[in-house]
Amino acid sequence: MSDTGVQRPSDPGEARSPGPTVQELLATDTREVPKPLLEESYEFLGSADIDKERYISGEFHRLEVEKLWKRVWQMACREEDIPEPGDYVVYDVADMSLIVVRTASGQIKAYHNACLHRGRRLCDDSGSVNQLRCAFHGFTWSLDGALTDVPCRWDFPHIDDQKFGLPEALTATWAGFVFVNPDRDAVPLADFIGEVDRHLEPFGLQDRFKAVHVVKVLDCNWKVALEAFIESYHVIATHPQLLEYLGDCNTQYDIYRRNDGLPGFNRMITAQAISSPHLGEPLEPQDVLEAMFRDFYPEGVGSIEVPDGQEARPVVAEAMRAQLVAATGADVSQVSDSEILDAIEYFVFPNMAPWAGVGAPLTYRFRPYGNDPDHCVFDVMMLIPLPAGAPKPKAAPPHVLGPDEDFHAAPELGGLCAVLNQDLTNLGWVQRGLKSMTKPGVTLANYQESRIRQFHQDLDAYLGSDAT
């Protein structure tokens, strides 16, 4: 493998890998490319180390709970998770728990998951009910949160029914996702989402359905896990088999900040069906095609030839289009090569990473696991497009992996299983390494890890002076 370093410009953060840029590749697309993908928005955010205590400190975790998780909009589920009245999902983050339920009128509400009698969780899992009844003593509330039954009501003359409704969090929907916020005084979700709505609108995430949902508790802080999935810099060491068809070090990273005090968003576009600059001279187009088919379209290996004089990208894209039509029935005839092939990943603060393309229709979510800064909950979802006018099926239920199971226990993830397992080999060791590291902080690349730096700057804005 060759060194991909280039002559450093005078301005920090301006150095780039050799090889074709994402924008140069988009210019060769065989279809019209959505306008947001044609934007570039990078700015240098500094080069100071990130304090390692942010990942390992119980005190820092408690600060996050009080000033972030109790105050921020966060994705709880998809709308198709709760399509009918009475359908509900339990959303847990740290020690907080919310029941996200569709009421008889079709509204979506979120109630704090605790009986107002003696505190038992009202719901232990997701499901469907016609009322919310505590399993301990039988206190019962309607789906609208009103108290409807108290066994031995004569013994509770001091309860005012009007004041004994279930406390609510805010709820709102965006792009087919249901968001919650425990802070009743928070800004509206639309204001919080901001410009990322313009970016993702062309991709129609609200029209897709959640066909796959895999959940795994990881042996690391939620930020350690999150940060591993918002940069492609790790591919050369962690996923070397991808170098034959993935432009890792010429990924485009985009930073979008705001001037109104709310968190911005960011994005990376990693081109596929090209070989990595780390390999030196580009691979032959046929070799690129065969390598990508090997991992994600094995039935196509040996069946398609790249014509002389062509690159692999348009040929692979056309084959993957046909595969997608066969699998989903969706019309993707005018969907760009980039949306079919590339890893187009956005980040919505604080913990959600939706992918825009249809070839890799992923969404990631990262949450603290209880009050343990050394563990987190990692959700992997796949949002599949549907044929025009087709009714949206109910979402796939979460497939929760056990402590001794890796992602091969979730074959519904297909070729992604092996890639995610490679990531697993790092995360627990990062958490342990941070505790033994004598250096007080972690060092980030100026460009390839700029999304991580923006995330921490937005996190600091929530945590205030206590973060330093």
TrEMBL record:
Cofactor list = Fe cation
Start and end residues of each stretch annotated as Disordered: 1-33
List the keywords (alphabetical).
2Fe-2S, Iron, Iron-sulfur, Metal-binding, Oxidoreductase
| CDD domains linked | RHO_alpha_C_MupW-like, Rieske_RO_Alpha_N
Q: Which residues form the Rieske domain?
A: 73-180
Q: Which GO terms describe its molecular function?
A: 2 iron, 2 sulfur cluster binding; iron ion binding; monooxygenase activity; oxidoreductase activity, acting on paired donors, with incorporation or reduction of molecular oxygen
Q: Which domain of life is it from?
A: Bacteria
Q: Which Pfam families match?
A: Rieske, Ring_hydroxyl_A
What InterPro entries would the database entry show?
Rieske_2Fe-2S, Rieske_2Fe-2S_sf, Ring_hydroxy_dOase_asu_C_dom, Rng_hydr_dOase-A
Identification of the protein by name: (2Fe-2S)-binding protein
Q: Which organism is it from?
A: Mycolicibacter longobardus
